[in-house]
Design brief:
The protein is built from 6 helices and 17 strands. It is of the alpha+beta class and about 240 residues long. The strands form 4 sheets. Strands 7, 8, 9, 10, 13, 14, 15, 16 and 17 form a 9-stranded mixed beta sheet that branches.
Length: about 240
């Protein structure tokens, strides 16, 4: 049965759906010898699909990998960095770094740390990053000063960012120190630098940001810079959300 080419590439573990669209737009994919376009359909039982001139089929799809990384500071969430910075793929065992289509699901800023899922399952990537699924993500955040109950209530209700209100969030104080406060923040959306921008707008800039869980997948005792396989139960939980 014919499917959109970006969906096929995603299902075959070549790239996430968005990354597959970028590959097609750059002219690197072809169908039956002709350069493909985004939205084009192909039937893997009939059509010859190639990427960078190499024919690809479901039969040569790599095994699926589902990994959890505790991202350290100053590591970027990309597969390749033009400025030569360390990427999350550099932290994987050597056999997993190339040729398998493993990529980060979403991102954390270079100056943020914590839970990051990596996979070569394009369908799971799409599910976890599409806004309609509202996967909860849990953070521990140190902010400057001591937010008042009114400020925390405002954060929970949502504020306007670029003319669009943020979704309600769960926010609770965890630890108070003289000049800073640790908060637990649970978000169900992933707008760019959202926690940092909201905290700044409310007068309490972020000092440290650490993600401790994605859905029910928790870092627990996983050390910074280390990676582990997700359990079958964890993967099923993410797929069913």
């Amino acid at each position: 049965m014919a499917e959109r080419l970006q969906k096929l590439l995603s299902q075959w573990g070549i790239a996430s759906r968005r990354q597959a669209e970028a590959l097609i737009e750059s002219g690197r994919a072809d169908v039956n010898g002709a350069i493909a376009h985004v939205g084009q359909k192909a039937d893997p039982l009939v059509d010859r699909v190639a990427l960078d001139g190499q024919i690809i089929t479901p039969e040569n799809r790599p095994d699926a990998y589902y990994l959890l990384l505790n991202k350290p500071l100053d590591v970027v969430c990309t597969c390749d960095d033009p400025w030569g910075r360390s990427t999350v793929l550099d932290l994987l065992p050597a056999p997993l770094r190339t040729g398998l289509g493993i990529h980060p699901v979403g991102r954390l800023d270079a100056n943020s740390t914590g839970a990051l899922i990596l996979t070569n399952d394009g369908d799971l990537t799409y599910r976890l990053t599409h806004p309609r699924h509202h996967i909860p993500k849990t953070y521990r955040v140190w902010v400057q000063g001591r937010p008042s109950p009114a400020v925390l209530a405002q954060w929970r209700r949502g504020i306007l960012l670029e003319q669009r209100r943020t979704l309600p969030a769960q926010v609770r104080p965890v630890t108070y120190q003289s000049t800073r406060t640790e908060l637990e923040v649970i978000l169900r959306e992933g707008r760019k630098r959202q926690i940092r921008r909201v905290a700044e707008a409310l007068g309490h800039p972020v000092l440290q940001l650490h993600r401790i869980a994605i859905g029910s997948v928790s870092l627990a005792s996983l050390m910074s810079g280390n990676v582990r396989d997700l359990t079958k139960h964890e993967v099923m939980g993410l797929e069913q959300r």
